[in-house]
Amino acid sequence: MMQLYQPLLQKYPIDLxxxxxxxxxxxxxxEFNKDCPVEFVGDDxxxxxxxxxxxxxxxxxCNTMLLKISQIGTVxxxxxxxxxxxxxxxGVFVSHRSGDTTYDFISDMAVGLRTGHxxxxxxxxxxxxxxxxxxxxxxxELLGNGEQCLYAGSNFRTAFNQ
Length: 162
Ligand SMILES: C=C(OP(=O)(O)O)C(=O)O
Hints:
Oligomer: single chain
Radius of gyration: 16 Å
Shape: globular
CATH topology: TIM Barrel
Strand content: 5-15%
Distance between the termini: 35 Å
Helix content: 40-55%
Number of helices: 7
CATH architecture: Alpha-Beta Barrel
Bound molecules: phosphoenolpyruvate
Strand order of the largest sheet: 1-2-3-4-5
């Protein structure tokens, strides 16, 4: 798989790879992360769990965590694991779930944690569009209150530091 990904990364403007290896294949994660030019995201690898984040940090297995609130089960647990990942200098990437609803709290979470990016899928269904619309509304609310609001753009990986 590694030999497949490297030329693709050279040829195409790919910004991130998520779960490119099986979650038991720590060796490939470690090897690939040694010279990985893109955001290298653990979803099934980390399951939004501090214990797995710790193991992945020890092994230097990835550089970003996908954050799924329902995997850890509580908002406080999600904040704890996100802060841990940010503390390691990793990116955090807030995600929707399969079979999601129009409940748009993940957008507030992405802004509040300054994750710089969110995954809600292509905007083809209302439960997906709801999250993007909420981001637009949050921006309007912040600017309306005279607060600062910065679009991270290409700095999305380090938004939490800006
Ligand atoms: C929807 C996703 O995952 P899950 O199927 O675990 O909810 C996802 O990662 O985009």
